[in-house]
Write a structure and sequence with these properties.
The chain is an alpha/beta fold and 272 residues long. The protein contains 6 helices and 12 strands. Helix 5 packs parallel to helix 6.
């Protein structure tokens, strides 16, 4: 728990910085010889949201010099819980499971691995990540997925984030656009295998949903969230991560009773 405390403490230091680019944190003792990678898309009018969800809006309340001689800026923002880089809390698809404010911090912070399926997923917009993809990772790394891991899935599709047609499969919005959604996701069979054969804390990927775009029943969501395993969606910069030996800090907006919310997620690497 002491390690978790220090990670969270320094995450708070990190989030207080306004810059989104990678920074040198060697002057912060706990991050000495560490490198931080931001896996979060900025929230803006360009943020990707589900085609039926309210998109991000920022209202400028004040920005400029005041009569008292100091600069002052303040904004209002309005958005759906599920859009941009965000978390799906278990209650999103599972009755009586964790709301976003109830998710244990231990499920959001800790050791992580990355499974790279981009060679397959970039050639198949409807690619479903399989059990074999996880077995191939274990063969390549000569180890089983460690208990208590946070798993990140790299499909390569984050590079399309600015282009809704390529990233979502459609530029249209509303219920009629749902049938045109195309992007990779995790197969229900692979989700079930992870639940039954491995012990994971949370899982994330660089597409709009843990279920692929053409899913109608959202079986992968139901399987994972029913086990109180939260999902992180719309991640970025996964290509900058190694396949193992790094940590994740994934701290969402703590919305009481929320089914999800905006997420700031950061990878902590050894700066070797």
């Amino acid at each position: 728990m002491k390690k978790i405390f220090f990670l969270i403490l320094n995450a708070m230091i990190f989030f207080s910085c306004s810059a989104t680019k990678e920074k040198d944190f060697n002057n912060v003792d706990i991050f000495k010889n560490k490198k931080l990678i931001d896996l979060t898309h900025s929230f803006s009018r360009e943020s990707i949201y589900w085609v039926t969800a309210k998109e991000f809006e920022l209202e400028v309340v004040a920005k400029g010099e005041t009569d008292n001689g100091y600069f002052y800026a303040a904004n209002n923002f309005e958005t759906a819980e599920h859009g941009g880089t965000h978390i799906d809390a278990p209650i999103h698809f599972a009755k009586d499971k964790h709301t976003v404010d109830q998710i244990p911090l231990e499920n959001l912070v800790g050791k992580a691995i990355k499974v790279d399926v981009s060679k397959k997923a970039l050639n198949n917009v409807d690619y479903l990540i399989t059990i074999q993809d996880f077995l191939d990772w274990e063969t390549s790394e000569k180890m089983q997925i460690p208990d208590g891991s946070i798993i990140l899935l790299q499909t390569g599709h984050s590079k399309y984030y600015a282009d809704k047609k390529k990233y979502l499969g459609t530029e249209e919005r509303g219920e009629e656009a749902v049938k045109d959604l195309h992007f990779p996701g995790l197969s229900p069979e692979a989700a079930k295998w992870l639940i039954e054969n491995r012990s994971i804390k949370s899982i994330g990927l660089d597409t709009p949903s843990i279920d692929y775009g053409q899913s109608k029943l959202f079986k992968t969501h139901v399987l994972l969230l029913s086990e109180n395993i939260p999902a992180f969606e719309n991640l970025m910069n996964l290509e900058k991560l190694p396949t193992k030996n790094f940590d994740i800090m994934a701290l969402p907006m703590k919305i009481e009773g929320g089914s999800g919310g905006p997420l700031r997620i950061v990878a902590v690497l050894n700066n070797d």
